[in-house]
Amino acid sequence: MKKYDVFGVGNALVDIIAFIDPNFLTKQKIDKGIMTLVDETRQGRILADLSEVKKELRSGGSAANTMIAIANSGGTCCYTGKVTKDTYGEFYKKDMEEAGVFFETTPDANGHTGTCVVLTTPDAERTMLTSLGISTSLTPEDIDIERLKASQYVYVEGYLWDGDSTKKASELTMNSAKANNVKVAFTYSDPFCVNRSRDEFIRLTKDYVDVVFCNTEEGLALSGKKDPAEAVAYIGTLSPMVFMTAGKEGAYVVENGKVELVPGFPVKPIDTTGAGDAFAAGVLYGLTHGFSPKKAARWGNYVASRIVQEVGPRLSVRLMGRQDEILQGFKD
């Protein structure tokens, strides 16, 4: 029996979460609703202008959010990312472990821990300004192959394709997983990641990936299609299993070429931060605990529906042991 359900690899970032008026984005000339990479100076200026706004800190990064939500559902997971020996780095490790995730890293004495300023407007849309810091120095040497072997799945985020060393660490993770009969799950992360690395993402999906995660925008960007159902069907020709979120409609599931739409849980969102990460967590929990793909997607939809009713990417309620109650009556 495997020790871990999922072995996650991603950019280790401390999320700095703030609710703002939409005019703040206009004044700062920030593109709404996407993730933008910024340098430390630019991020510092923005934080200075937010000095009077209440902020919350969370250990984060896309894959880290997923690992935390898996642990919340009752799963076991470990996470590999890079932080430094600074205040944010110390906070990151402690916060991850308190959330139930084994966090392994070799702290670096140089540079600064990566941070992501998450700006949420009243319409629940989130805009992210990320200073990657030391997270981009993750290397193949940071990957613990023995822990990887002890996992059912590895989960790799597409954001890692922005750096040469992080890309190499990701490919080593996928190669090692394939060599040791560990399934590979990959998230396309963001439309800009897809647009920048489309050919590589297609190659990776064909060569390594057992389970793809994406949202509709990412699916359309990768496939070149205009219809969501056609997009997810195309991705299903590259990988045996695909999960594509479709907002309030739920999520598309493709298994061996068959496309189905699994309904979601209607809620009024207050903050969409981490919704896709939470969905992936629910699905991965399900797949590692004997759920069918459709049932796993239904649980993923539920976890995502709960996260969008929270401030930030962390659930305030425990979902462990509630699967039977929530999924009662759902038919595969």
TrEMBL record:
Domain Carbohydrate kinase PfkB per the UniProt entry, residue ranges: 56-316
PROSITE patterns assigned: PFKB_KINASES_2
Pfam families: PfkB
Coiled coil (UniProt feature): none
GO MF terms held by the record: kinase activity
Sequence similarity: Belongs to the carbohydrate kinase PfkB family.
Classification via PANTHER family: CARBOHYDRATE KINASE PFKB DOMAIN-CONTAINING PROTEIN, SUGAR KINASE
Record protein name field: Adenosine kinase
